[in-house]
Specification:
This protein is mainly α and 107 residues long. The protein is built from 3 helices and 3 strands. The chain has a 3-stranded antiparallel beta sheet, with no helix packed on it. Helix 2 packs antiparallel against helix 3. The protein is elongated, with a radius of gyration of 18 Å. The two termini are 18 Å apart.
Length: 107
């Protein structure tokens, strides 16, 4: 089975429906946009969520602390310097989560 494929009609579920899993979590089912049947995730996309959460925080915390203590910037300047790392870590986490979505049938 391919990534984001409906188990009934074997068409790819739209990205719009899959993006809801990033915001709401994985404990609900969705509807296939082709056949209209209810589908759920076969398993949790990333079982090590707490590890990826900690790595995301560290990828933001370390650049900010570097700006504060090495470059002697103010808090706001350090926060602005850390913002690109925030966007990159969110984008990488979203990509890895969407890449590992596999749907099963009704549960």
């Amino acid at each position: 089975m391919k990534n984001r494929e409906c188990p009934y009609c074997h068409q790819t579920v739209s990205l719009k429906r899959c993006l809801k899993y990033l915001l709401r979590g994985t404990d609900y089912d969705t509807v296939c946009n082709h056949c209209g049947r209810s589908i759920r995730l076969a398993k949790e996309p990333k079982p090590g969520f707490k590890y990826s959460f900690v790595m995301g925080l560290l990828s933001i915390y370390i650049p900010m602390q570097t700006c504060l203590y090495v470059f002697h910037t103010t808090f706001v300047e350090a926060l602005i310097c850390a913002l690109p790392f925030v966007f990159v870590s969110i984008a990488v986490a979203a990509y890895l989560t969407l890449r590992s979505l596999f749907f099963g049938g009704d549960i």
